[in-house]
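Quick illustration for those who missed Monday's session on complexes.
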Amino acid sequence: MAALKVLSVASEVFPLVKTGGLADVVGALPPAVTREGIAMRTLVPGYPSILDALRNADAVASFARLQGGPARLLAGLAAGLELLVLDAPHLYARPGNPYVRADGREWPDNAQRFAALGDCAAALGRGLVPSFVPDVIHAHDWQAGLAPAFVRYGGTLGPATVMTVHNLAFQGQFPRELLATIGLPPHAYAIDGVEYHGTIGYLKAGLALADRITTVSPTYAAEIRTSEAGMGLDGLLRERAGVLTGILNGIDDKVWDPAVDAHLAQRYDARHPAQRAPNKPALQARFGLDVDAGSFVFGVVSRLTWQKGMDLLLEALATLVDSGAQLALLGSGDAALEQSFIAAAQRMKGRVAAIIGYDEDLAHKIQAGADALLVPSRFEPCGLTQLCALRYGAIPVVARVGGLTDTVVDANEMALAARAGTGVQFAPVTRERLELAMHRTLALWHERVTWRALQSRAMATEVGWSRPAKHYAALYRALAGSRAP
Ligand code: ADP
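Prediction with adenosine-5'-diphosphate bound:
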């Protein structure tokens, strides 16, 4: 039997274009589902970084006019992935961040830029490239949200569609006047179509029109149906609860493998956790912290935003330092938070260190050198850094929200008695609870035997893609089966 064909559609793919965990998932999914017998190709915009990396590219289709200019579709290989790249220079030939200009403001034509992506996906669904006609289109986040809409309003029964929400906070809303410009028919502008509070909602369109909806953890799948976490879309998600499921993300366990990780001062694995030890002084030295094996090190690898609870961490810094611990923080984001962490590092030299920026190498060094990784998010669809932390033996200390709930097992007294627990959870997400969680973590660390057991359970946790890939493959098969004649 021929393999089921799935077109994954996204605007980011690791390691070519990345602003967040979305890119990691989009990059890891194809090889993982290939092992489950799915033939996946990934449709991405032709950003300069993607076109530069593309090898053996063939032009497999062309558009005389797509969202205001000519475009080609290139098929080729980049970063080991089979990509379909939408080469539309009038939309994507812009270096830097994929969504915003150098001055931090959104590109004024984002509506057209990401309509093109959905439009092209639907065209592929209708047979644009005869050698790859997908059975299922899998759209990721708002940038691909119009794919199910272009399929639905395309006139023919297209492939089945899946809409995955990686973060409900980013919704892609544009003026209703653009409906004809982006090429959707007037009747698409309806409550059960693309209309969203008087605008065109790209994510909303995907959620309303896709055959199935997934998000990246079971807990987030439940949370987004509530008014507290639904960000205005909870009503729709409640209505569509019957087709909404949560599938946890994995991490690429080849990129994140402490046994072979070239970024580390010393490599180690779950059977030799003691070999992890030299990574801590190396981290302390690299960050300008006091080099002292006896000081507990909390690490952070994060966007510096309100979502990530970074303001709470700032408020808790005095407590962290008073309890004898250190902080090694890597992140970038809101200018005010960046400045506050730099100022705190100057005030608490040797105890608190902050490196502002995006740096893969340092992210690996933190996971290997820190005793614990702090993730005090106010909401977290899945979260990837705590999965890396588990694998690297940095005990995750996490807010009990979203995917953090589902991936970290709280080491409470009963869990420990049952030889369970892989980290520390806290709720509600307040400064006080964060401080208590830090204290609880330090208390666990002082019980050396308990801590070692916690670390080895964390490192043994299955955080790769094989389990999630089985869920996705089953979903694709069920969908394709439901469309079979
Ligand atoms: P989100 O997608 O909300 O930013 P996730 O935890 O799902 O959060 O994914 C974040 C990804 O980006 C992880 O792979 C993490 O290691 C990485 N990351 C975040 N900030 C940085 C940074 N400053 N430097 C390097 N990697 C980072």
